[in-house]
Design brief:
The chain is built from 10 helices and 11 strands. With 286 residues, it is α/β, with parallel strands linked by helices. The protein has a single domain, classed as P-loop containing nucleotide triphosphate hydrolases (Rossmann fold, 3-Layer(aba) Sandwich).
């Protein structure tokens, strides 16, 4: 199924094919936002709106880390989470998926795995177009990915929305059916980005962890308490912890993200030095 997500100045019908190497919107002010059925998408989705901006380059640095792991280790499914709510994980997941999808040969799926407070469809401005999603596919084995995945051909991106809000999200995610869906997705996509619930308040990430290859943890500077970050790292499987995505200013989520490797031997994030006023530096994990 195709979902409408078009910029203020449409690029034309020649880009309808999802794998045909769609042309990207030109760099512009964040006001030129793609429009879904319910209104404008979030202005911080720079990988979709202004991919050639300085902010967009930061997500391409993250993209490079994932592409290298994909090539070297076969990494396919990456969960994006955070110790606490409102750290910027959903914005990071969407922008990272958009950055990966800038490669016209890449097949990218963005999954809204936060069944408690789903935000992907809202940020993309999809509204009711999102329709049935992950919850319906888990509860109804008769549904395939084709029934619930929405394609955004202009951006070479596919989206699996969360679907309806279940009364017991943890029990839904515990279903073996979730593993079947991820296996099906692995056969069809090169990269699968999963926006998960925050790690500390709820146990959902512990269930999702068995189906993903790696975790990126988003941290909001001057907001995320150090003790909660440490707790999040303690409960995340060490071998799957890829690194931290550092959000310097929650009010401008995409202005300054940096990627830092997580040294398991130290049990803490290693921050690269930052030049005053400069863009964050990227440091691969060991």
């Amino acid at each position: 199924m195709n979902a409408t997500l078009t910029p203020r100045q449409p690029e034309g019908s020649a880009h309808a094919a999802r794998r045909a190497g769609p042309r990207r919107p030109e760099a512009a002010a964040p006001a030129a936002r793609p429009i879904g059925s319910s209104g404008a998408a979030d202005e911080h989705l720079v990988s979709l709106l202004v991919p050639n901006s300085i902010e967009g380059e930061q997500y391409r640095a993250l993209r490079h880390q994932i592409e290298q792991r994909h090539k070297d280790d076969g990494l396919t499914v990456v969960a994006i989470s955070s110790p606490t709510p409102a750290d910027g994980k959903t914005t990071t997941a969407i922008n990272l998926a958009g950055a990966l999808a800038q490669d016209p040969q890449a097949r990218v799926l963005l999954v809204d795995g936060d069944l408690r407070v789903p935000s992907v469809s809202e940020q993309l401005g999809l509204g009711e177009v999102a329709g049935p999603g992950l919850v319906e596919a888990i509860l109804d084995p008769g549904r395939s990915l084709d029934d619930v995945v929405r394609d955004l051909p202009l951006f070479n991106l596919s989206v699996l929305p969360a679907g309806r809000s279940p009364s017991a999200p943890y029990e839904v995610l515990k279903s073996p059916r979730l593993g079947d869906l991820f296996q099906e997705a692995r056969r069809r996509f090169d990269y699968i980005l999963v926006d998960t619930p925050p790690i500390v308040p709820v146990p959902d990430c512990r269930v999702i962890s068995k189906w993903v290859d790696g975790f990126m943890v988003v941290v909001a500077a001057h907001k995320t308490p150090r003790r909660l970050l440490q707790e999040a790292l303690n409960v995340t499987e060490p071998g799957k912890l890829m690194g931290l995505v550092f959000n310097r200013d929650e009010r401008l989520l995409t202005r300054a993200y940096g990627y830092y490797g997580y040294g398991q031997q130290h049990g803490r994030a290693r921050a690269a030095e930052r030049g005053r006023g400069g863009a964050p530096r990227s440091q691969p994990c060991p």
